[in-house]
Amino acid sequence: MKPAHWLFALVALNAAWATDLFVLGHGFEDLAAPGGLLTALGRLTGLYGAIALVLQLVLIARLPWLETRLGMDRLTAWHRWSGFWVLWLVLAHVVFITLGYAAADGSPVLSEIGTLVFDTDDVLKATVATILLIGVAVTSARRARRRLKYETWHFVHLYAYLAVLLGFLHQVTIGRDFVSSPVGRVYWWALYGSALGAVLLTRLGLPLLRNFRHRLRVVSVVRENPEVVTVWIGGRNLDKLPARAGQFFLWRFLNRWWEAHPYSLSAMPDGQYLRITVKALGDGSAWLQGIRPGTRVLIEGPYGAFTARRRTREHVLLVAGGVGVTPIRALLEEFAHARDDIVVVYRASTASDTVLTGELEQLARWCGARLHVVTGSSDAVGRYGPMMGPQHLAALVPDVQRRDVYVCGPPGMTDAVRRTLDRLGVPENQCHTERFAFAG
């Protein structure tokens, strides 16, 4: 069974267990009482919201077993989708419980809200958790993400951990499954404990172990153009670091240790050095333009399923857009060593916007790959129609249907290429993408 099927099966199984615990806890016995149905719905939506919140923890834990098989794109999309389910279930829980208790007490809704928040154990904590979840959800909306700096978005999302803690404390104190059911207590402690343990292990324990083992430092900095630098990082025992071409790390440089930035490797790991190539797009990447050799580096990862492991065919097409060329360049190096049949298409607005073109040309000559650098505005039309349209891509790569296609670039460009590949009849399992944007 595929990892995705395992994940869906576990979510369904836990939803069934939570429902069973609700029934065994006599959750439906008070339906005839005033507000009984509303209260029951409030409890059920609260339980399902807790399960969705645990799913969120599992997804952000970036478990290697899941992440290397599903890819960061899919995990990020699921994390975002399940996050909105968490919000709607929690809001439904709040509304149903408030209306149910108000009906049972015969009190006005606004008065009941005040009673619940200020006079009921740990409901104030749950209220704060709900407000935090709303804040995280608002900043996750596409329109908000486009206006936020990565640093701001990342800082706001750290509050999700506090929301989980406060919500759990609320559930421990007044949740009927905790208060009246020993089986329920064991179940919920095990569920939350497993999810939080996975986060601590993979997001804290494993990175600490790897950083202690490898002791990374900046070795050299090479300026590619006025906005782009390539940073070489060295360390100990890098041959034991399980990194592959096409993957990325979260990088922290110790003179700005509080900021973590996702950068793909721009060269195939060789056991001696790691290399990233960064364009000044935000505060963190702009600051990195002046990084000095000797600076200590902390990493989290490697992440991403955008690797040669996903290949299904002997022939490969690599499509890069803008600075998304960095993992494509690393993949080209790995495929070049295997002497595979390779075509590379590099899309940029102007020739001056291209990065690492000289290295691409050198690798292409070495392994006999065909390299096409396509420049022009997003609405440019060439001899065969739109620059990345079906006719133009088919003219550049006539046998595209029999190739594995790796695409990395800005979201708009990546979506356009995927539509083109679909129109050209390239099977879904031969298309591999990595969106070069934070938060998927």
UniProtKB/TrEMBL annotation:
InterPro entries linked: FAD-bd_FR_type (IPR017927), Fe3_Rdtase_TM_dom (IPR013130), FNR_nucleotide-bd (IPR039261), MRET (IPR050415), OxRdtase_FAD/NAD-bd (IPR001433), Riboflavin_synthase-like_b-brl (IPR017938)
Pfam families given in the database record: Ferric_reduct, NAD_binding_1
Principal subcellular localization: membrane
GO MF annotations, alphabetized: 2 iron, 2 sulfur cluster binding; flavin adenine dinucleotide binding; metal ion binding; oxidoreductase activity
GO CC terms in record: membrane
Location(s) in or outside the cell: Membrane
UniProt cross-references to Gene3D superfamilies, sorted A to Z: Nucleotide-binding domain of ferredoxin-NADP reductase (FNR) module, Translation factors
Cofactor requirement: FAD
Domain FAD-binding FR-type stretches: 211-309
Transmembrane segments: 42-63, 84-103, 123-141, 153-174, 186-206
UniProt keywords, alphabetically: 2Fe-2S, FAD, Flavoprotein, Iron, Iron-sulfur, Membrane, Metal-binding, Oxidoreductase, Transmembrane, Transmembrane helix
Top-level taxon: Bacteria
Membrane topology type: Multi-pass membrane protein
The protein's name in its UniProt record: Oxidoreductase
